[in-house]
Amino acid sequence: MRVANAAVYEETCPPLLHNISLDRTPLTISPGYTNFSFFYNCTLKPEDYYTLYALSCATNSTHYSIAGFHLEETEMPNIYLLNSCQDFANAPIHTGEDIGSLLGENYREVLKMGFLMNWTAHDCSTCERSGGRCGFENNEFNCFCRDGPRLKSCDAGNSSSNILYD
């Protein structure tokens, strides 16, 4: 599934981004993404650099905010600029192979590309054959049955309340 921040579609000045964590979920970011890095409240003004995106909504007379691809890895002539920033976030962007075509775009258009996520589902056939429905509860796979959640199926003897942990 493709995921994008709804604010980039609805607002001309989307709010500051924050890093996301998919720990303890069945979701992973698909391969083939590129980090689009945001640096907020930088005290040093960036020089003209063709790969940077100015974030005018998050800039004032004394602090500057920028975005760009691979900024944490780029050997920029003014790399010291990044050290003057108070906050940063990375947004995964599914760009395909070429980011060169995105360099002239508005950063909101780049964010609209979003990123692809994978959901690793368990084999639900045993659960469904027993009359249950597959799902997750407390970040664990369960077979949801009429009498409550079970480990693999609604058949007797595998209630999730009888789980033994090592």
Q: How would you briefly describe this protein structure?
A:
The protein is mainly beta and 166 residues long. It contains four helices and ten strands; from the N terminus they run E-H-E-E-E-E-H-E-H-E-H-E-E-E.
Structure description:
This protein has helices spanning 7-10, 80-83, 107-112, 125-129; strands spanning 2-3, 27-29, 33-42, 53-54, 64-69, 85-94, 115-119, 133-137, 140-145, 148-150. It is mainly β and 166 residues long. The strands form 3 sheets. A 4-stranded antiparallel sheet has the order 4-5-3-6. The longest helix has 6 residues, at 107-112. The model is unreliable at 162-166 (pLDDT under 50).
Structural class: mainly beta
Number of helices: 4
Average predicted confidence as pLDDT = 77
- N-to-C CA distance: 35 Å
Strand content: 25-35%
Q: What is the element string, with H for helices and E for strands?
A: EHEEEEHEHEHEEE
**Coarse morphology:** elongated
Keywords:
mainly beta; four-stranded antiparallel β-sheet; 4 helices; 31% strand; elongated
Question: Mind sketching the topology for me?
Answer:
Layout (H helix, E strand, L loop, with lengths): L1 E2 L3 H4 L16 E3 L3 E10 L10 E2 L9 E6 L10 H4 L1 E10 L12 H6 L2 E5 L5 H5 L3 E5 L2 E6 L2 E3 L16
